[in-house]
Amino acid sequence: MRPKSRSSASFRALAPNEAGFTLIEMLVVLAILSVLAAVTVPYAEITVKRGKELDLRRDLREIRTALDRFHDDWLNIRISRTNGSVSEDGYPKTLEELVEGVDSAGPRAVKQKYLRRIPENPFGDNSLPLDQQWGLRSYLDDAHSSQWGGQDVYDVYCPGDGKALDGSLYHDW
């Protein structure tokens, strides 16, 4: 008998009963992975959008609460009625007034601040300054107006025609 050489032993073909994957098995695995990826990607996109919607609701609530507190302080004369940053209706003239603060009424002028910063609109144009990412309505504007009268800031909304997961439009929130 002739001894087998090393090179022929290391490159020999697998016998049919030896372990290994066939081309069909590899294709089945790839098909299963493709189906799983096709199901997972839309779910991930919905999860990201849902997170942005939660951020939008929180940010709108934060700004609107600050506006209400500002107006309440004006009604209760904790803010001077002659303050130049307050409109005749008792609302701030700009969103920046909520961050910069206004002098409180009384013997000692103390700045009363209502926001630490203007929140970023998750669906807004991030190239714009924060105070321009939001749609504004003044006290004299119509409740569904998309044009700001400029007198004061009575309400904020998300501009644009984006549609939420529940079918509502963001600018109606």
What attributes does this structure have?
single chain; 173 residues; mainly alpha; two-stranded antiparallel sheet; 36% helix; elongated
Question: What does this protein look like?
Answer:
The chain has helices at 6-10, 23-75, 96-100, and strands spanning 102-103, 111-112, 135-137, 155-157. The chain has 173 residues and is mainly alpha-helical. The protein has one domain. The strands form 2 sheets. It has a two-stranded antiparallel sheet. A two-stranded antiparallel ribbon has the order 3-4. Strand 1 (102-103) and strand 2 form a beta hairpin.
The overall pLDDT, averaged over residues, is: 88
In angstroms, what separates the terminal alpha carbons?
89 Å
Helix-strand makeup class:
mainly alpha
Tally of separate domains: 1
Radius of gyration: 31 Å
Query: Main β-sheet, in a few words?
Result: 2 strands, antiparallel
Number of helices: 3
The percent of residues in helical segments reads: 25-40%
Tell me the series of helices and strands, N- to C-terminal.
HHHEEEE
Shape: elongated
**Total E-strand runs:** 4
* Approximate strand percentage: 5-15%
Strand order of the largest sheet: 1-2
Low-confidence stretches: none
